[in-house]
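= Paired protein data =
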Amino acid sequence: MTRIARRMFELLEPICLVTFFADECNDELAALGHRTYWDGYFASRAAPLGRVPAQVVHAAFYNFAEGEAARHIPSAWETIPPEASVAARLRGSAASVRRILGDELVGSPGLVRAADLATKAATSAPTEGRMMYAGMRTLPIPGDPVARLWHSATMLREHRGDGHIAALLSERIGGTESHVLSALDMGIHPAESFGRIHHLPKQRLAEVMDGLRERGLVDSGGRFTDSGRRTKERIETLTDELADAPYDALAPAELDGLIAELEPITAKLEAAGSR
């Protein structure tokens, strides 16, 4: 099942990434009145949790620097209700998927079957300990197949993300540290130049790197030690294991069918860079 969880992540992630890479979602959120990309991001992604304070959003998202959530929550909701933001995210994301895939794929029986099977998986896992996934489970399932496919893929992404946070916690890796490990795993050096953290204060980045060196996870040059690489591998393995549960709901033939139907969809999205 770990192999299946990893394969499903590879197939579903390009569907989810249109929310962040394509124009339609940002345009929908801007039309509501969100002033910046990050206002729209925090307001719409956190919306399924309800009107929670910034501290809760920071805890749920996990890998943003201290204070980043508070720059957008709750101010982004003062004039724009969370319900409007999450609806705009769905409209824009579905529009991006529809545009990239084109009429032939969008109108195919295979997309409908992929949406139905992904929804069956996405609505079948336990919610205990899965804050973001539980929030997504409270939202209505869209009737439109393209919107339903994006919605279910995003539910499964949040389910996996909640498990990834648990895996990071099991290794005592904080949010910023997790970005350093990801950067090194991708071959980015120095890790401090990684786009998710390069804007942070240099003193904060130095503290993070010093802490990883003290634990023997990176060497004096800021690269993985053997221990650091093994730690990253354990995190990814546990993340895959914790992502299994939704797919237990699918019979083997259904799982094979979901993979087969997703492959041409994912290929089209990947070719476009989910933009």
Residues 46 and 57 are 7 Å apart (CA to CA). The mean pLDDT is 97. Residues 145-170 form the longest helix (26 residues).
